[in-house]
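Rather than argue in generalities, we have chosen a single entry, letters for residues, whole numbers for local backbone shapes, without further comment.
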Amino acid sequence: MDQQIKEYIALPLAINVFKHDRPLFKGWSMANLYLSKIDHVIDQMQDDFNQMRSKYYNRVRKLNNSYIIDGRKFTFTADQLREITAEVASRYMYGDKATPFEIKNIIPYTDNPYTN
């Protein structure tokens, strides 16, 4: 299976993990640093996912706990999805996809741009 297809599957999962982890930094003395990095990574991942969507939207479909990729059914275990998601997240945090970011003055837990 193509590495980019795995990334296409893992990006939304990684985005959700980072959004879920944001509140954990409440009360940290360096919260602005971590929240700024997480927000930057989320935005970067979302931009990359949006670009990949045009290429893979018709090739990859989620069906219950499986994915239909080019007409073939693939089932991933929770551990496999966790591993793929961790690889993608680490690439954006400090790997080849990491980019400089600006530290913002964020009031932890109240300034959440990703509230639903």
Q: What stands out?
A: The mean pLDDT is 90.
